[in-house]
Design goal:
By secondary structure, this protein is of the alpha+beta class. It has 5 helices and 9 strands; from the N terminus they run αββββαβαββαββα. Strands 1, 2, 3, 4, 5, 6, 7, 8 and 9 form a 9-stranded mixed beta sheet that branches. Strand 5, helix 3 and strand 6 form a beta-alpha-beta unit. The longest helix has 29 residues.
Length: 203
């Protein structure tokens, strides 16, 4: 049975992909996941990073940096800009992700969803709020259907806060570890290029 074999192979590589499929009721394990982060120093030398995992593994050939055009220290506006540009006509030939992870909470996620709406793009999109490592889902606009049984099966908890579903898992959970790896990699990649810009400007 080919489908069972494929599931078993994915489970061996990264069982978190299968868990994501079940939690968000996706069509299948998210083969391509894109993670986004904003890096700057008091609104100067701002860059937005896009990192990619393919089948749960870092795919560094697909990483991209966006030099933001909106000035100032406004992470919400910068996040909206990078999502709007990533899904703009110029990049229409880029592979489409099966899931987008935004570094940030309700504000960053809401801005990213607004930008997707302007491009008329419907892709599952969620955030990761750093303080409590909470997965943030817009109940109406994240393009996912949450499976409460799947969350509880993984010892997770959830609550509704003003139209956003806040999901928490134990620190040892494979799903939160995957989210953290993607978030941390997006941050590392963004800071690397922000530092290059800062050094170049100082020189």
């Amino acid at each position: 049975n080919i489908s069972i074999f494929e599931d078993d192979t994915l489970a061996e590589q990264d069982g978190s992909l299968l868990s994501l499929r079940d939690i968000f009721e996706l069509d299948g394990p998210p083969k391509r996941i894109e993670g986004y982060d904003i890096s700057h120093m008091s609104g100067v030398d701002t860059v937005a990073s896009m990192v990619v995992t393919t089948n749960g593994l870092a795919d560094k050939t697909q990483y991209r940096i966006f030099h933001t055009k909106i000035p100032g220290n406004d992470d919400f506006a910068h996040m909206a800009e990078v999502i709007r540009r990533r899904f703009g006509p110029k990049n229409k030939n880029w592979p489409q992700p099966n899931l987008i992870i935004i570094d940030g909470g309700k504000g960053q996620l809401g801005s990213a969803i607004d930008a997707l709406g302007l491009r008329d793009v419907k892709i599952p999109i969620v955030g990761l709020a750093k303080r409590y490592e909470t997965i943030v889902v817009d109940a109406n606009r994240s393009n996912v259907k949450l499976s409460h049984p799947a969350i509880l099966k993984l010892e997770g908890s959830f609550k509704n806060e003003g139209g956003y579903i806040m999901i928490n898992f134990p620190a040892s959970n494979e799903v939160i570890k995957l989210f953290q790896r993607i978030r941390d990699e997006a941050h590392r990649f963004g800071v690397l290029h922000h530092t290059k810009l800062k050094r170049r400007r100082n020189v």
